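Hi everyone, sorry if this is the wrong subforum. Our group has a chain we'd like a structural model of before ordering constructs, and none of us has done structure prediction before. Sequence below.
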Amino acid sequence: VADNNVLLPNTNNLIYIRGNVRTTDLHLEVLREGNAELNTYIIAGSSTQQAGTTLTIDPGVNLKFTNGSYLYSYGAIQAVGTAADRIVLTSVYDDTVGAKYSSGNVNSGIWGGLTIGAGDTSANLAYMDLRYAASAIDTAVDTTASNLRISQSSSHGLLTRSNAVVTLSDSEVYGGNTWGVRCYHSQRLTV
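Answer:
Right subforum, don't worry. Here is the predicted structure as tokens:
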């Protein structure tokens, strides 16, 4: 680990982040020490990335959200996985990826979703899976999204609004309870 901390191995190889407002950049990465790997972050409570900051999520990272938690970004967001190392945003009860944290039933809408709000922001999302959110992605800014798999949302898979120009390519949006993709007051949606 670059900062010389040793954070693993442990019974649960994960990092717990309590929801708060961040005024500095945040970089979520996969940490490795010998044969051990830490790739899971638990977000407990809503987390807000303020304008003027950047949220970077590396390939292979799993973000697991507690009930009702959201990830709000008013700064830039770079979440670009790869075909081999997808980024996953899901419920803490989803044991199919990352470290096991909690047991319970996984239902659509159990966590809030990723909200990308107006500000000095841009969004680049690729090779991501978003599961069991209320509204998986709600964007009010220009967004480039490719190779996404959005599933089991209780409201919107992808909601675009506020004159956002959104390009969605090579993606799957399925298993939702209402809208797969909804363009609401957006300037342009290219699918």
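For your construct planning: DSSP finds no helices and 21 strands in the chain. The chain has a mean pLDDT of 89.
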